[in-house]
Amino acid sequence: MSDTFQNIISNLVWGFRDSIFGMFKAFKLDSEIPTEHSSRTVEPMTALAKRRAEKSKHKDTVKESNEPKVTQRIALCCAWNGGVCLMSIFIFNYCVLPIIFWVTEIVSARAGSSNTVWSWLSVLLSATFDALWILPLFVLSKIVNCFWFQDIADAAYLKTRGKPQLPSISRFIADMSFSLLLQALFLIQAMLIKLLPIWGIGHLISLVHICLLYALYAFEYKWFNMGLEVHTRLAHIETNWAYFCGFGLPLAVVTSLPSSNFQSGCIFSIIFPLVIISANEAVEPTEPFEFPLKLFAPVVSISNSIFHRSVSKRIRNVSSSSSRSSSTSSTPQKTRH
Known about the structure:
By secondary structure, the protein is mostly helical. Helix content is 78%, strand content 0%. α7 crosses α9 and α7 (201-225) packs across α10.
């Protein structure tokens, strides 16, 4: 029992360390030489071949210089989520609202009215700001971040591991749809477990859910480029849950500090690109843990049933349409005399 507890603690520390120290490797990726160029052997060439090699090398250097680097992508992502989204929230809450409150106090004092005007005015201003600025900006940021996160993950994978194994379009759509449905259901499961009446237990189990979900978010880019399917990725998370729980713990703690969901989402979008780099550079355990944690089993069964129903319904529609077409084609046509 003590050995098992020590293994859990060591794996938690291992994952926590990989998550933190892996972020600093993002600034070294642009200086690293890709593995494709370093593995080439030098062979004797003729003068014409040397000229062609120099021309191709010049084209490659121009192409690499024009291509944005990993650090530039991360800086752009942080500037948008932190400089535009998060900064606008802080400016409104700590600059605009205090100025309006100060003006309202002066006007209400001169008019001899009570200070109850500010109680409904602040709520009205906050609701208007959230509806007209924060909510559209938050939705736009979610869409933009999906492309930026994928771009950062692909660039980091190409720098350290080579060309990713791209699947077919149908498999990509099916994998992405199943993964998004599963992650949404798992997040709902974490929110429901948090409502357990036992004090502290519900919050602790919900925190484990969020840590594993954030680790799945980060490692999914690398595993998808490696060609691993959804069920293989989930099995890897469940059999090494202590490591991945420690890996997702820093991001889960930092995003839980703000009281607003918008602020938490902005902080997540700022830190998550660095966590993607950490997952790409991490060396996760290969041997399964002796006690797997099957937290994804309920949502996997629900997702499988939903997908099986949709696929079977589609097959029935296709078969019924084909049977109709075959029956119409087999009916004899009357000939004119």
